[in-house]
Structure formats: structure tokens, C-alpha cells
Amino acid sequence: MHYSRMCSSLLVSVVVAIGCGGSKPQDAAATAERGQATAQPIQLAQAPAEAQPVAAGSAAVQVTVKFQGTAPARTKIKMGADPVCQQQHATPMESEEVVVNGNGTLKNAFVYVKNGITGSYPAPATPVTLEQVGCWYHPHVFGLQVNQPMEILNSDATLHNINAKPTVNTPFNIAQPVKGMKTTKKFAKPEVMVKFKCNVHPWMNAYAGVLEHPFFGVSDDQGVVTMKGLPAGTYTLEAWHETYGTQTQTVSVADGETKSIEFTFKAQ
């Protein structure tokens, strides 16, 4: 039996009972919009830009995350267990645990101000989107503020589940069996990082940093994160990477000043 048809026919008996391989789904507020499956290769959108404050200071910090050593080979992902997943990729997807850019920098490092922020920064009303497209979480690493909406979207014509594994916030595990389903969640406490996984497709995982302020970003395909709108002051910055751990630095910036700093992660 075709994989996606099997998921649909077993939806009541399997998805509800076992949460797609994890614990019982906790969310009952998901909304569904039916769409059409496509056999065309998909192109992932660019990750969202760094969050920016609504109103703050005039200083900025530009961070470059460098990589030292020989870049490890990226694993090609086998999606043959679900033809709906496989048919969406003209070439196999590659793991995102370690992505070294052509200029010797490291992609997908979460960089944020760990200490030194004063005042309050209300959560934006605009949601951050975690999309399941091509049987892949996108973006792989992202950030949002405490109590900012996070919209989880299934853009695939196959069953997914989203198993969030925080240690400070409340875990959840929800099923999205229909293309177009959306679920909105929020995190009530700061936490770096929150891991997401899909029990149906075990190669799918993502990470979110949850902060009380908007001074964070994810290193891009040039290894750069720019945090703007900082008040003058002294701050501790941390760079987190899922394979190489964390590093911290202290930086002082004056009004109108832009400081450039570097983090360097070494091959293991």
C-alpha cells in the first residue's frame, strides 16, 4: 500500500493512539487547509533574518562564526521509506548538523546576547514559522521571543508529527496528517535551545532559541550574524552550535558604534 494512503487510512487508529510514534498528541487546535501534492523538486526558502528590536539603541555587533579544520562530510539523507518525501527532491538532501560555507565559516550557529540586556522587549505579534516542506524542517535553527507565536505548518501531502523536547518549557507532540495544517504554539520561558523532531521521519530535526529580547540571529551562508539596535553597554555574547557546543565573548559598544567579533569552532 502506498505510504501516504496508509497514513490516511490509519489516521484514527494510529495517529490518535500513538502520536505518530511519540507520545499522544496534546494539541487539538490545529486547523487544516487541504492542498495538492506535487512531484516537482522543492526549493527551500531562505531562513528568516535576525530579529530586530522595535525601539532600542543605535549600536550594533557583527559576528562572524568561523570554522577551523577539515569539514566533515555531510550525510546524504535516504527518504525511500516515504515516496512522498523522496519524489520532492531531484537530488538527495544532506544533513545540516555541520554545514561549512565556502568561505570557511560555519552555518546554523545560534548567536545571542546572553547577559547585559536591561529593560523589557514585548514579544512581536508576528509569528515565526517552522515549516515542514520536502519532509524537512525549515529553518533548521531559528530564534523567537518568549510568548511570540510560532506557527507550525505542514506543506507536505504526508503525515508529520512535531515532537518538541524542551527542558524548561512544556513539551508537546502534535500530529499533522494533512497538507496545509497549521498549529500555533508559544513558549512561556526563555530556553536555549529547544529541540524538535519528527517520529515519522527520524531524519527531521530543528532547534529554536527562546529569549526575552530580540538580540539574536543564526549564522547564514557567509557565517555572519548582525545584531542591530543595541543600547550602548557591555554584553556577553554566546554562540551555540548543535555539534560543537557553545562559546562566549564579552563586547562593549558605544552609541552609533558597530563592533565586529569572531567565534571559531574547531573540527573534532
Helix/strand layout:
Layout: H1 3-9, H2 11-18, E1 59-68, H3 83-86, E2 110-115, E3 128-132, E4 137-138, E5 141-145, E6 150-154, E7 160-164, E8 172-176, E9 182-185, E10 191-197, E11 205-211, E12 216-218, E13 224-230, E14 233-241, E15 245-253, E16 258-266
Parallel strand pairs: 1-16, 3-6, 5-11
Antiparallel strand pairs: 1-13, 2-12, 2-14, 3-4, 6-9, 7-8, 7-10, 10-11, 14-15
Helix pairs in contact: 1-2
Give the CA-CA distance, first to last residue: 44 Å
Shape: globular
The strand count comes to: 16
Which secondary-structure class do the elements indicate?
mainly beta
SS summary, helix count: 3
- Helix and strand sequence: HHEHEEEEEEEEEEEEEEE
- Biggest β-sheet: count, sense, barrel? 5 strands, mixed
Strand order of the largest sheet: 5-11-10-7-8
- As a percent range, the share of helical residues equals under 10%
Mean pLDDT: 85
Low-confidence regions: 1-47
Radius of gyration: 19 Å
Measured by DSSP, the beta-strand proportion falls in 35-45%
Describe the protein in words:
With 268 residues, this protein is mainly beta. 7% of the residues lie in helices and 37% in strands. The chain contains three helices and 16 strands. The strands form four sheets. The protein has a five-stranded mixed beta sheet, with no helix packed on it. A hairpin with a 3-residue loop joins strand 14 and strand 15. The longest helix is centred in the N-terminal third of the chain and has 8 residues. It is globular. It starts with a helix and ends with a strand. The N terminus is likely disordered.
